[in-house]
Structures are given as structure tokens and as C-alpha cells.
Amino acid sequence: MFEGFRLFPDQASTVARDVDLLYFFMIAVTGAAVVVVCSAILYFAVRYRRRSDSDWPTGEEPHHAIEYVWIIVPFFVFMVMFFWGAKLYFHTSRPPDGALDVYVTGRQWMWKFQHVGGQSEINALHVPVGRPVRLIMASEDVIHSMYFPAFRTKMDVLPNRFTVTWFEATRAGRYHLFCTEYCGTLHSGMIGEVTVMEPDEYQKWLAGGATEGSLSSEGKKAFETYACNTCHMTGNQARGPDLAALFGSRRSLRDGRTVVADENYIRESITNPQAKIVAGYEPIMPTFQGQLNEAQLMQLVAYVKSLRATGGTEPVESPASLTTNAGTPEQRQ
Ligand code: CUA
After folding, report:
1. What would the DSSP string read from start to end of 138-185?
2. Position 284 pLDDT exceeds 80
3. Residue 7 and residue 245: Cα distance in Å, rounded?
4. What 3-state DSSP class applies to 113?
5. Cα-to-centroid distance, 147 and ligand 1 (Å)
6. 149 C-alpha vs ligand 1 centroid, how far in Å?
7. Strand, helix or coil at 101?
8. What pTM was computed for the model?
9. Is residue 306 within 8 Å of 237, Cβ to Cβ?
10. pLDDT tens, residue by residue, 162-195
11. Using a 6 Å cutoff on CB, does residue 179 contact ligand 1?
12. 291-305 pLDDT per residue, tens
């Protein structure tokens, strides 16, 4: 009778079961609260109903002990949800080391995925099974939201900054991906399919799919086209900071702050260079806001990241860049 009728999507990622357990716990607790409260209302309505016109409350104070119980017990029960949820949230917000980077652009009304090797796809994403995948996402227009029901992964995609999320698929197969933030007329059509493949099949897919150079080599081209290299160079004459070991490092700013050079830092330094000036340098860099599209920004970010892996001269272009990654800034400190 219920064939084909499923309340829950597949559990196809490392966190899917944990998210579902928390969800079931919350349903159980809130369901129990509904039953207890509604039963009490019904019982009291009957038990203490007004029996005659002269039936008035006596003004007796109830015992305080019973009030303490109904305040303190639910407090602790609901705090379980809070700590359980926070633990899961922290886990899902921190991509593990060695994650595979995929750059995602959302726009009205499609998703574009760019792999570091230069493969790109529209409304489709191919990933290997058993390997964390880190999505670095931005929107070219309004707010979108990337949602993989089978992975229990969802993250808003915003204009003018990167948001990051990750998942590790545990079962090969094909799953839905959706936009879950109303973004205009064709929002409901902003959907796609994620294909989880066995690692060797995935390697085959990668080998057949590169339409342009790797992201970092495209970024290197943009770096030269926009003459970034006239200021950002190695040596004492450099007017801008050397970018070789930049990614993931701690930067001391002129105003005394210290920040970590993550993807958003690099992006902001390109589109709004005055926002964070590194100590020892002058605020002379012009903004590139409006001159670079989302894809170029991602390529430049990939290029700057690749400099770290190679020690600063040439970007990583070998297939090795697909299997090794420096992880997130937080984890490297
Ligand atoms: Cu994009 Cu809804």
C-alpha cells in the first residue's frame, strides 16, 4: 500500500543517520509534549469544570514544587536538543582535511559546478564515494540555497561572498539537488542531479571531462591579464604582498587585527582591497569589483591556493591536485 511512498530521502552521507536521529528525537519530545499538554487540558477541563453559578475559585495558591518540576524537567530535556544539535552543527560546518574542492556558482536559474581540474557541469555534479567534498559557493545575483536531501546538507549561496559546506557520500547512486531559497520565477526549476561514483569511475569521468585548463591555470592567466603580477611578486621591490604562502596563513593587518587568509579573504582583497590592508603595505590596490565575474574570482582563488602547495612559482596542474588538498584554514593552524 505504501510502496513508493517514502517520508525520508535516502541516507547517503556520513551525517545523514545522525541528522535523522536528532530529528526523530525532536519529533518524539515535541510529540510527547503535545500529548501531555493536550491531555492535561482535557482532564482539567472536565475535572475542574464550573458546576453551578455560585462555583467560584477559592484563591488557593498551588504548590510551588509542581511548578518547579514543569519548568526544570522540560528545560533539561530541551537542552539535550540544543547540545546535540550544536555538536552536529559544528561537525557539519567544519570540512575535514583532504576534502575535494568544488566551486559552485548559483544564478537565476541554474547551478554551475567547477572542478579544480577544469571540468565544469551545469545542474549536475559528479563526486566520488567515501571522500569529503567541500563546496565553495557564491551567487551571481540573488540568494539561492544549495540542498542535497540525501546528504542532509544545505547551505545558502550568497552574492558577494563565499559560503562553504561539505559532505561525504557513502553510497554510489544518483540523488536530487535543489535550490531551497525562493529566487524568482523559475526557482522551482533550479534543480539538478548529483552522481556519486566509485573512485575509479570518478577518475575516469574526470579524465574525460576537462573542457578548459585547470582552475588554477585559468586563474594564473587572469592574474597576468589583470597585471596582478606587477605588484604581487617575490622580493623587496614588491608593492603588494607575496602570495606564495598566503592561503591559510594568519595575516597581521595595519590596524592591528589578525585574520586568516581563507577563500573569502582572498575574494575580498580582490573586490574590496581597502577592507584589510596587510601591515607594512600601502592601501594602493584598486578594486576589481565589477571587472571580474564569479568564475574568474573562483579561478583566482584557486590559483592563489595552488601557490601555497607549490611554494609560490607555478600552479599545481598535475592530477595530484585532485587528490591532495590543504584542508581548511582553521585546521592548519
Ligand atoms: Cu535559486 Cu531558488
Report:
1. EESSS-EEEEEGGGTEEEEE-BTS-EEEEEEB-S-EEEEEEE-S--ST
2. no
3. 49
4. strand
5. 10
6. 15
7. strand
8. 0.75
9. no
10. 899 999 999 999 999 999 999 999 999 999 999 9
11. yes
12. 777 888 888 888 888
Q: Scanning the structure block, which residue is given the C-alpha cell 594568519?
A: 250
Q: Are 168 and 131 in contact (CB under 8 A)?
A: yes
Contacts 24+ apart (CB under 8 A), 252-258: 252/278, 252/279, 253/277, 253/278, 253/279, 254/278, 254/279, 254/280, 254/281
Distance of CA 203 to the CA centre of its chain: 24
State the average pLDDT over residues 67-84.
92
Above 80 in pLDDT, residue 101? yes
> Is residue 196 in contact with ligand 1, taking CB distance under 6 Å?
no
Distance (angstroms) between ligand 1 centre and the Cα of 121 equals 17
DSSP label at 60?
P
Widest CA span of the chain, in angstroms? 97
Q: Is 181 in the pocket of ligand 1 (CB under 6 A)?
A: yes
- Any idea what DSSP says for residue 98? T
Quote the cell numbers at residue 4.
513508493
3-state secondary structure of 125: strand
**Locus of grid cell 539538478:** 192
Q: Which atom of ligand 1 is nearest to the CA of 187?
A: 2
State which amino acid sits at residue 77.
V
The alpha carbon of 148 and the centre of ligand 1 are apart by a number of angstroms equal to 13
* Tens-place pLDDT, residues 127-138: 999 999 999 999
Q: How far is the CA of 101 from the centre of ligand 1 (A)?
A: 22
Relative to the CA of 109, which ligand 1 atom is closest?
Answer: 1
In 3D space, the residue among 59, 105, 83, 142 whose CA is nearest the CA of residue 299 turns out to be: 105
The three grid cell numbers given for residue 305, joined into one nine-digit string: 591556493
